[in-house]
Structure prediction request, 318 residues.
Amino acid sequence: MSRTRSHVDTVVSTVTSGSAAARSGLAASWHRSMQHHRLDPARPQAARRLSGGELAESRARLDRFLQVAAPKLDQLFGLVGNSGCGVLLTDERGIVLDQRRADADAQVFDAWGLTPGADWSEASEGTNGIGTCLTERRQITIHRDEHFLARNIGMSCMDAPIFGADGSLLAALDVSSARADQTAGYNRLIAAMVAQTARAIEADHFRASFPGARIIVADTGETDAAVLLAVDGDDLVVGATRAARRAFGLEPQGLLRPRPASDLLGRDDGASGFEKAERAAVMRALARTGGNVSEAARALGVGRATLYRRMKRLGIGD
Prediction:
């Protein structure tokens, strides 16, 4: 029996066994592919591709994100490109928007359908790194015959999701390889690099989305996600990454209701909050003027005598 026929038989028997989907995450994805998406594991056609105009429109929609991500894609490709791997970035639908690959590998990747404009959603290609990562919203590796379609069992795909500044699913980062000697152990090393790069892209995009805010890295014990808060000039939290929203019990996605940073970070301003804020303003003005009270008073828009009285009340000495 051919390898292709054997794989198709394995997928069909697994899906029709009844309880397999409950026992295995992979079997559950196979079940979705066949029963929900009505795909045939023996289908020979390559991935569906968008037209040039459709691809341009999809890229324009995420233009700022693609600009932020590009340097990180270059870095990742620099680490894995010499081993026959390609780096792909998709949107939340599984459409490939950007790619890095060696010229020598271009023909191979084109034959597999790993090219800009290709649709690698689970609905289009069944179980695969990109589509299943986006469907399950988690880091995943699909190694060779774990793919649903028999035509894809020569590939290994390592993927991680990327969430937007509003907490919604934004993209998937993928490293794919069609090398026959690609081992599961090597895949684990690549998967770790993919996850780290995805977190870096997510963090960079979050910072770019709040250019006028202070970005606070919160220590919540989460090591697998970017836990970042954006704080405006009034010390209000106006943005949070998906991991930060989860850690602090904020809105899961969408616009964030501003709230004092002290409420989230545990500082107890209590009844003296305004007094502390006034003291901080005076101390900043004095620091900027090197302790010159007259210049500090002018900067604060008050008289010198008034500033002295406030300094005395606030316990600020000479």
Q: What stands out?
A: The mean pLDDT is 89. Residues 9 and 84 are 30 Å apart (CA to CA). The chain has three domains: 3-207, 210-265, 272-314.
